[in-house]
Amino acid sequence: MDGHADRTLEALGLGEAPATDPLRYPGAWPAESGLLDGDLLLPLDRLTHEDRVPVLAVGSNACPGQLRHKMRQAGITSPVPLVRTRVTGIGIGVSAHVSRLGYVSASPVHAPGSVRELFVTWLDAEQLAVIDASEGVPLPYGNYRRAWLPSPEVRIELADGTRLPGAYSYVNRRGVLHDGAGLPRGHPGQRELITELLTSVPRLRQLFGVTPEEFCTRARADARLCERGTRVLAEEKLVTTSGLERFVRDQHTGSPGTGSSLSPPLT
What we know:
This protein has six helices and eleven strands. By secondary structure, it is an alpha+beta fold. The chain has one domain: Gamma-glutamyl cyclotransferase-like (Hypothetical upf0131 protein ytfp). The longest helix is centred in the last third of the chain and has 13 residues, at about 225-235.
């Protein structure tokens, strides 16, 4: 550890986890690709990992502190490669549910022509199971479904010019919040988002209080309250589809939905 003191998550400003500090959601993302190895973020020796599954992160799964927290909770110590990519066709929307961790999380949305820098995590089978569980996969009780987003509908390019055939991501089964005109809205950051929701939706104020701090505290203390808040979002007609539903597999039967025939088998 002494030889890598400058590579610790704390030294890099990447150590905080939204799971324990929800108003910091989605947490700090790295400036470049790296290998999360315990408390360290080390340089990567390669950008692709054929023995692992690529999972595109749009929220806190790109935060090393959050990933460390999730893996430690599950007793997983194996390293996780995080690769910075250039992604075309995906936007960062707002999940139409209140998380039990006290925040309103991000969710991918269909955004043709949109280009942004996002991270792909390359996960082994144990790590994938941990992230699946943290996202509430499989159905019927979770908020997300894991979907294979194929090229060319979603273009994922690495720094060396390699283009991935696709990647998994977590699509919210409840939909996403819209911008008032029916289109998915962007995620502005946790404090701004919660402030806006509490200001504009009186029923949410009745449930969660008037400040972001109150919202987070009450949500973390009461799973049933989170479910009620989620229903309010739908009942107030604040929800639309993400546009990615066609890529979602039926996780009860394993049968593919439209477009998911391009999904590769897990390794």
